[in-house]
Design brief:
11 helices, mainly alpha
Amino acid sequence: MISMHIFWLALIQGLTEFLPVSSSGHLILFAKLTPYGDQGQAIDIALHIGSLIAVVLYFWLTIKNMLQGLWQNKFKPNFANTGVRLAYYILFATLPAIVIGGVFSYLGTDWTRSTKLIGIMLIAYSIVLWYADTKFSTAKTLNEMSLRDALLIGFAQCLAFIPGTSRSGVTITMGRFLGYNRAEVAKFTMLLSIPSILAAGILAAYTLYNGAEFTRIAMAYQAIGLSFIFSFLAIFLMMRWLRFATFLPFVIYRVILGVALLFKAYGLI
């Protein structure tokens, strides 16, 4: 039987992971504002694994091109090959998050789970996203990406360790500042999620099986499956939306949610 707790978590994860609205912020708020309580880090990561599978399947042709390029070039950084270049740019863009993530792991992240902080970040970064999306060119494609641009997007990704900023939101925002097409930068952002989610998923799987937490394992499998379904749907709809529209609806949603959370945090509602 499907756990309703896992169902709602997977729905939230799937619909928010790749939209610029902060999936981690929504998951934290769900735990705070419902009687279900905190689902724990292992379930959080299982939800992200479902999203990872959805990304891999949706962008399989691009990923296949990267893998073939790497194999044919014996993993040498031959940037004349589009697949190899994109693969290495994703690798380089991931490195800042590995370093900063290690720092956050050492310092602890309890202070980041504040409703007030999430509300502030939702509003602050919605303004930055709106400015970047309306004031900068949409001409550049991934074929024009430079190593400098990839690293800037990678450093922007580090801001997402604070819930409410949104990993996809800050990376898309940086991409828009750099003049990239909306759909193209969204695609790079989703591909950029693969290494970090994969690493976290391997660690979570080891922890679950090593501890023989059979109930949690069953819940994790449910979380992966449901998150995959909802994530794939969200990617499909978002990529089609960005062919002709802007990020304005997400900006408006972030502001409304952020204001509501601040009102609640200060006891006004």
